[in-house]
Amino acid sequence: MFVFLASKEIKCIKERDPAARNYFEILLLYSGVHAVVRYRYAHFFYKLHLYFIARFISQTTRFFTGIEIHPGAQIGKGLFIDHGMGVVVGETTIIGDNCTVYQGVTLGGTGKDKGKRHPTIGNNVMIGAGAKVLGPFKVGDNSKIAANAVVLSEVPANSTCVGVPARVTRLNGEKVRNDCDLDQIHIPDPVSQELCKIYKRIYELEKLQKNKNENQ
User: What angle in degrees, to the nearest 10, is found between the helix axes of 31-47 and 2-16?
Assistant: First the structure.
């Protein structure tokens, strides 16, 4: 049963993770697979309103894997939680198919919303290490959230989001700001870009003033 529930996740990990040598290794050693499969057991009991059993499973999973997925969350097929330590998925979170989540990611709420408090993540979304997605909005299909970004508002489909708070830097393949291909490392920082513009402007003004003084 465990292998059956994990089959889609194992296949996706083998395709996406260059460090994965074989299916047997993924099944036994990848904490993300264990967390997702145990979540599916917990979610089954949650839907039966057996909340204590559901939470017991999720909390023991957290103890052994460092990944906390609330049994009330809705998760599609092919979720790849890479490394996984510190990942938190809130109760009303919805995650689509074939998503990738790195360590330290929080899919949480802001503390002021009721009912649907957590984000809805579309299909084929990548969320980089340490990113925080907070609030009851949607992250569109095929979007990418950079490492350590803090997302507080809706993200369009086919976009790249970076910064604190996060801003869209690429949309539908077109650059919104100076950007480069996303890989979690070579990611533009919009705040740094604006500071560079200010420094450049200050340099130009100082040079202009210096030339003015020399001509006097």
Answer: 140
- Per the CB < 8 A criterion, the answer to whether 153 and 138 are in contact is no
Any bridge partners for residue 160, and if so which? 144, 170
pTM above 0.70, yes or no: yes
Residue with tokens 């809705």: 74
pLDDT tens readout for residues 48-89: 999 999 999 999 999 999 999 999 999 998 899 988 899 999
Residue 5 backbone phi and psi in degrees, to 5: -65, -30
